[in-house]
């Protein structure tokens, strides 16, 4: 029995995308692609009975993506979606309208689902510091943008500020305690893009999940960030490498304290349907 509050985390498969191999590894063939899952994570906080999502994954309505993204669909990403996050929740008897907050690792197309669907109309959309300065104005205000304005609904979009980052955690300097009980920490982890954030979920007395978004796009990157890893998809290569170094340091720090941290990337790993991850 855990003595401090924990959260439950379940994986939701929202489809798959392809990445060209040179986007993943320096020695990757640009004419070959690798299929990558697109995961969303459902988080439940039993003490307050709060339902949260960390990322929404892909949206089924592929035609609603910005033209700049759709240009890349046939030749690069080739997204495939059968069931979106809302469908999956309903199939598990969770009404999407119960979702109080959608925490975004970052607002790239494969993490934002379709937030304009009615069933998420009450959810707060929470982003890391610096996200909107980088991503807005988005499409359709800016026709060249790869981001969608609908990801930032008026009155429901919150972005963390300096005063929210009240903790540090090992090598990470900007950490937000979402529930105020350390069961879910949001960690500033730029590099993939400004405002990119991780979520550290405490799932048991000594077990943690680090929902790591697009810090990396392959489990191999967690070891090979100074070797074969390509930083093709990261807006700031040095910051992205620094984030991966910090993830490795945090994992080691916890291991030394006999705590287990499992890193869950948005595009790697295999989970059963709505698997509860611990
Ligand atoms: Zn992604």
Small molecules in complex:
zinc ion
CATH level 1 class label: Alpha Beta
Number of domains: 1
Helix and strand element order: EHEEHHHEEHEEEEEEHHEE
Rounded mean pLDDT is 96
Number of strands: 13
Tally the helices.
7
Major beta-sheet overview: 7 strands, mixed
What separation lies between the terminal Cα atoms?
14 Å
CATH topology: Metallo-beta-lactamase, Chain A
Give unreliable regions as ranges.
none
- Share of β-strand residues: 25-35%
Physical arrangement of strands within the biggest beta sheet: 6-5-4-3-2-1-13
Silhouette: globular
Based on CA atoms alone, the radius of gyration comes out at 18 Å
Architecture in CATH?
4-Layer Sandwich
Q: Roughly how much helix do the residues carry, as a percent range? A: 10-25%
Structural class: alpha/beta
The H-level CATH homologous superfamily, spelled out, is Ribonuclease Z/Hydroxyacylglutathione hydrolase-like
Cofactor: Zn(2+)
Pfam families: Lactamase_B (PF00753)
Family: Belongs to the metallo-beta-lactamase superfamily.
Protein name: Metallo-beta-lactamase domain-containing protein
């Amino acid at each position: 029995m855990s003595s401090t509050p924990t959260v439950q985390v379940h994986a939701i498969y929202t489809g798959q995308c392809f990445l060209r191999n040179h986007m993943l590894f320096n020695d990757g063939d640009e004419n070959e692609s690798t299929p990558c899952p697109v995961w969303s994570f459902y988080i439940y906080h039993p003490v307050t009975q709060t339902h949260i999502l960390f990322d929404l994954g892909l949206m089924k309505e592929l035609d609603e993506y910005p033209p700049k993204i759709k240009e890349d669909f046939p030749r690069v990403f080739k997204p495939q979606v059968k069931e979106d996050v809302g469908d999956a929740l309903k199939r598990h008897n969770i009404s999407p309208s119960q979702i109080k907050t959608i925490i975004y690792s970052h607002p790239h197309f494969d993490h934002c689902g379709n937030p304009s669907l009615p069933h998420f109309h009450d959810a707060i959309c929470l982003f890391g510091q610096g996200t909107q300065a980088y991503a807005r104005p988005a499409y359709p205000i800016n026709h060249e943008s790869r981001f969608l304005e609908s990801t930032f609904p008026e009155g429901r979009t919150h972005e963390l500020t300096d005063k929210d980052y009240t903790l540090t955690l090992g090598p990470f300097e900007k950490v937000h305690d979402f529930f105020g009980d350390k069961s879910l920490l949001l960690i500033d982890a730029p590099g993939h893009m400004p405002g990119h954030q991780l979520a550290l979920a405490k799932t048991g007395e000594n077990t943690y999940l680090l929902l790591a978004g697009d810090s990396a796009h392959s489990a191999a990157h967690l070891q090979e960030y100074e070797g074969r890893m390509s930083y093709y998809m990261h807006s700031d290569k040095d910051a992205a490498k620094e984030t991966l170094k910090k993830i490795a340091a945090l994992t080691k720090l916890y291991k030394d304290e006999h705590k287990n941290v499992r890193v869950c990337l948005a595009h790697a790993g295999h989970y059963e349907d709505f698997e509860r991850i611990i």
